[in-house]
Amino acid sequence: MPLLIQSKEAERRIKALEATKRPGQPNGAIAEASIALGNISPGALSKWLISRKIYVGNNPSFSRKECIEEYHRLIKELGHIPARYEWRELSPQGVAWRTHWGTYEGFTLAAGISPDDTRILLLDIETAPNRAYVWGTWKQNINPEWIDANGYILCWTAKWLGEQDVIFHRLVNGNHKKLLWPIHDLLGQAHAVVHYNGSSFDIPTLNKEFLTHGFKPPSPYKQIDLLLTMRDGFRFPNNKLDYIVKTLGLGEKLRHEGPQMWLDCMKDDAEAWAKMEAYNRRDVEILEKLYRRLLPWFKGHPNRAAMSGFASCPS
């Protein structure tokens, strides 16, 4: 790397760390700086800072009691148990808890929050297509050498079962890591993830992006693929999500102009993004309705007590 570029990148990294300084972390926060930079992992940033004799070791600025009290205050303010990334972003104690507890689960249990069925996550993603050079449009086998660009995640929507808030994030300024951190965090908290064809598409696509951008695997979780449930237990003429929910009177997907909406979002068109967000949110809304309708029909639905790690009578 040329010296001029090295110098500019070093200055950018220092500024990103400076921007994270606040009460509770007077020396800054490496994880937050890494997200803002978007091109370096927290571990790599930490090593780089140490090589320049910059040490980010903050003394505990909040007691155990203060961390727990702030957590309960935030729950009351938001009206729901905050996702881990919300806790980290909305409060200095969202980082300071680490000085007292070894794991996030240990902290939440100390705060009196026990795992329950709200840790079932409903999820849907939207992606940009792969781009390739082709000789035709019918029954083509594409040579990998002709793939010009891989597809990527444009946006995602998630919702905890039993909670009101719907979480939407989209790609901004090509910062894939900033898009991926929150969903990686949510998956790490989930005991099970509900999706439609997600075992073949959404989850492998997310894993591809996590691997590409240097993430470690999220904590293990069960998958509940409603498309597989429909195929295994029922014989509808068509298993498209839109057809199923309309047939069952659960609503329908939002209409749109077709592939052009995706192409316009790739060009960062504001109107297209508004439509895409509404479309993505609606998919999760009808996904939850279908999940609740199918509950009595599930064969081998993951046991909630087993998922949460808490003992209970079998049901």
How do the helices and strands line up, and which of them pair or pack?
Blueprint: H1 3-18, H2 30-37, H3 42-51, H4 64-78, H5 84-90, H6 93-96, H7 104-110, E1 120-128, E2 131-132, E3 147-149, E4 152-160, E5 167-170, H8 176-189, E6 192-195, H9 202-212, E7 222-225, H10 226-233, H11 241-247, H12 259-266, H13 270-294, H14 304-308
Parallel strand pairs: 1-6, 6-7
Antiparallel strand pairs: 1-4, 2-3, 4-5
Helix pairs in contact: 1-2, 2-3, 12-13
Describe, in plain words, how this protein is organized in 3D.
With 315 residues, the protein is an alpha/beta fold. The protein folds into three domains: 10-51; 64-110; 117-136 and 143-308, 2-Layer Sandwich (Nucleotidyltransferase, domain 5). It contains 14 helices and seven strands. Strands 5-4-1-6-7 form a five-stranded mixed β-sheet, sandwiched between helices. It has a two-stranded antiparallel ribbon with strand order 2-3. β6, α9 (202-212) and β7 form a beta-alpha-beta unit. The radius of gyration is 22 Å and the shape is globular. The termini are far apart. Residues 310-315 have low confidence and may be disordered.
Overall pLDDT score: 83
In the CATH hierarchy, the architecture of the largest domain is: 2-Layer Sandwich
CATH superfamily of the largest domain: Ribonuclease H-like superfamily/Ribonuclease H
- How much helix is in the residues? 40-55%
The CATH class label of the largest domain is Alpha Beta
Going across the major beta sheet, what is the strand order?
5-4-1-6-7
Rg computed from alpha carbons, rounded to a whole number of angstroms: 22 Å
DSSP E strands, number:
7
How many separate domains? 3
Structural class: alpha/beta
What would you call the shape?
A: globular
- The tally of helices reads 14
* Assembly context of the chains: single chain
H/E series? HHHHHHHEEEEEHEHEHHHHH
Largest sheet: 5 strands, mixed
CA-to-CA gap between the ends?
A: 61 Å
Please indicate the percent range of residues in DSSP E strands (runs of 2 or more). Answer: 5-15%
Which fold name corresponds to the CATH topology of the largest domain? Nucleotidyltransferase, domain 5
Low-confidence stretches: 310-315
